[in-house]
Amino acid sequence: ALLDLSGVHQLTGTWMGSTTIPCTYVPSEGFTQQTLSWSVERDSSTSTIFWRDDSGDHILLSKYRGRVSVPKNSPGDASLLIENLEMPDSGHYTCQVIWRSTDDSLITREVTTTVKVVKVAATKPIIRAGEPGLTLPAGASTSLTCEASGSPPISYRWFRSAPAGTAELLSSGAELAWPSLRPSDSGTYFCEAQNR
């Protein structure tokens, strides 16, 4: 089909994360993109977020300023990137493109995607070692990295098991690094991931 917009019906975004709402087409000879707009419908009112024409890009809704963008210099890609997703960003997003043909007629196409913003709890973290095998000579350097997924921001804490089943808090941050290992660094280490 000539100049059809492709997108997706539904999309789930993670609160505080970012998402790209796809809207693409195959550029065709003889058709020039005149305008591109993105609008959002929520609570049965529709507002235009983004407008692109010969004069450039315009973000019309202040609550999206600094958080939305559309690829530049990428013909056929009209996708909308939204960063720092907020719960009220959930809604129906419509991408509309108008082309002018060589005989000066206008063609309009649009595609609508339902976006749902969800809060995702931090997953059980995994620990990645700087190198395979964690039996290392004294004086070597090594590191452990804690990784979890979920709604950002995710904070990390490292513990080391201590006598009598207790744990000693070592540091906060995803990486635990030793510039030069000592024999006393042998032990069992735990990491904890947490988000809001």
From TrEMBL:
<dbReference type="InterPro" id="IPR003599">
    <property type="entry name" value="Ig_sub"/>
</dbReference>
<dbReference type="GO" id="GO:0045957">
    <property type="term" value="P:negative regulation of complement activation, alternative pathway"/>
</dbReference>
<dbReference type="Pfam" id="PF07686">
    <property type="entry name" value="V-set"/>
</dbReference>
<dbReference type="GO" id="GO:0001851">
    <property type="term" value="F:complement component C3b binding"/>
</dbReference>
<dbReference type="InterPro" id="IPR013106">
    <property type="entry name" value="Ig_V-set"/>
</dbReference>
<dbReference type="InterPro" id="IPR039939">
    <property type="entry name" value="VSIG4"/>
</dbReference>
<protein>
    <submittedName>
        <fullName>VSIG4 protein</fullName>
    </submittedName>
</protein>
<dbReference type="GO" id="GO:0043031">
    <property type="term" value="P:negative regulation of macrophage activation"/>
</dbReference>
<dbReference type="GO" id="GO:0032703">
    <property type="term" value="P:negative regulation of interleukin-2 production"/>
</dbReference>
<feature type="domain" description="Ig-like">
    <location>
        <begin position="125"/>
        <end position="196"/>
    </location>
</feature>
<dbReference type="InterPro" id="IPR013783">
    <property type="entry name" value="Ig-like_fold"/>
</dbReference>
<dbReference type="InterPro" id="IPR036179">
    <property type="entry name" value="Ig-like_dom_sf"/>
</dbReference>
<dbReference type="InterPro" id="IPR007110">
    <property type="entry name" value="Ig-like_dom"/>
</dbReference>
<feature type="domain" description="Ig-like">
    <location>
        <begin position="17"/>
        <end position="112"/>
    </location>
</feature>
<dbReference type="GO" id="GO:0042130">
    <property type="term" value="P:negative regulation of T cell proliferation"/>
</dbReference>
<dbReference type="Pfam" id="PF13927">
    <property type="entry name" value="Ig_3"/>
</dbReference>
